[in-house]
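question for whoever is on the cluster today: can someone run the full assembly for these? two chains, 573 residues total. i dont have access anymore since they changed the login thing
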Amino acid sequence: MLEIRMHGRGGQGGVVALEMLASTYFKQGQFVQVFPEFGAERRGAPVAAFMRVDKRPIRLRCKIYKPDCIIVLDPVLLNSVKVTDGLKKDGWVLINTDTENPLENLKLGKGFNIATVNATAIAVKYGLGSRTSPIVNTTMLGAFCGLPFGPNISVLKNTIKGKITIKTNNNLLAADEGCKSVKIYQN
Amino acid sequence: MKEVMSGNHAVSYGAMLSRAQVIAAYPITPQTQIVEMLSEFCRTGRLKAKFIKVESEHSALAACIGASIAGARAFTATSAQGLALMHELIHWAANGRMPIVMADVNRSMAPGWSIWTDQNDSLSQRDTGWLQFYCESNQEVIDTIIQGYKIAETVLLPVMVVLDAFVLSHTSEGVDIPEQKLVDKFLPPYKPQYKMDLNQTLAFGALVTPDYNFELKYQIQEAMEYSLTLARKVDKEFKRFSGRNYGLIEPYRCARAEIILVTSGTITSTAREVIDNLRKQGEKIGLLKIRMFRPFPAQEVIEALEDCKKVAVIDRNIGYGVGGILCQEIKSAFCNNARRPEIFGYITGIGGRDVTPDTIMEIVIDVRKNNKADNRIKYVGLRKLR
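^ ran it for u. tokens below:
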């Protein structure tokens, strides 16, 4: 079973993103489960969303405490949230950042893999959201498909086509570029 | 068609596929998404129903009762304080023999102000004459709404379909949406024998003197007893349509079990994982899921449990001054039975506290080391207070 936790801010589309990722796995015959942080969400406040993926039906109905993979939509969250909390040894952190040297600059700690993508720049380039609050979720999902265990990008793009009715094509281009430009570092 | 959807939306789809004709509701977290989606279905014409916006849950159920008297298939959904506010009309719907289906998203009663799950809201309506089903997955939710109408309209009693706040309501997973034409075959339009009709005047909810009322109440109990047989039959029939059924209760890996856990709602699902692990290690342990709580399928429960040594009932609720409500029901079922396992009662997960495999293991470890049950309540996951 693959367990994922996504960190974002209320209104950034984290739950929607994980639902799209779940649909993508689901279309490939996997079992999925997605849930938000159980509680009141406020726009702009740090929030998390969770996902389980497995080859067999998922029966665990409790929170995820030890994820295999963390996705961080907003790099500024690193200042206030310990995003690697509970992350399994040799797990993955996929983060939206413009740094070229994440091992040095992000100070995430050791014992897991780091993948980076400048999703903010890509989202802005394709006019997703605004310069001050870009909508990076489709770019980040594209980047996730670029990870060794990620699902097929073409299946993700089918899901995006089905779920996103505004700026569909730009979201598809952003997902593609996210997938191609993700960089992987062993830490 | 299979789709990833939340428990709330599974309810909405269930009501739409059942072709509910009147929907009256008042928003309350964590239920709101149910009626939001239904209002959208009504707006787009996907569901041809009258959507009535009301000023309170009391009015929501009142509107459903009015619709039901007029011969319409009515639906509403609520949670916690909303359900409590309906209480007067909850009795009215059952005593008036209205086959309304309602979804209750289990939410802890306030105060402490809470939006998280436990079963005290729905269980405090247990003696009102509503049938109650507790669901384990989003698939079971959509299927039980559809089954609910068939049962309600045959037996002329209202049905409450219950799902855990967030753990189901806001959790998305794969759901097989039954085809409309199959649902139509399974659930034909509601044709009441009596309804409000200007050409044939009848009184609904009129004065009933002591000469007659006892018999009316007796008939509700009679209908409840018949619902056990009926719900079993409807569930089997549903399987022929959809390939799925659930039973009123479900014994899971209970063959030659010495210990059996009893659960309801989503705790069942997590407990299956624990049982499988323990069975792999050779432990003689099983699980009994209670899906139908009213009427209580006592005879089936006895048959499922009487051969084991110890029963651990896990309650996500508390009957203050007594203990776990499910535990009381099971003890009462066994009261006049010659063979009786030791029955241990555990309370956990109140107010939405997470119930993990470790929580369930803690219960297993406790029940393993105790051979004699007493009436003390055992709490799991409770913080030390002093």
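summary bc i know u wont read the tokens: Chain A has six helices and seven strands. Residues 2-186 of chain A form a domain with the Pyruvate-ferredoxin Oxidoreductase; domain 3 fold (CATH 3.40.920.10).
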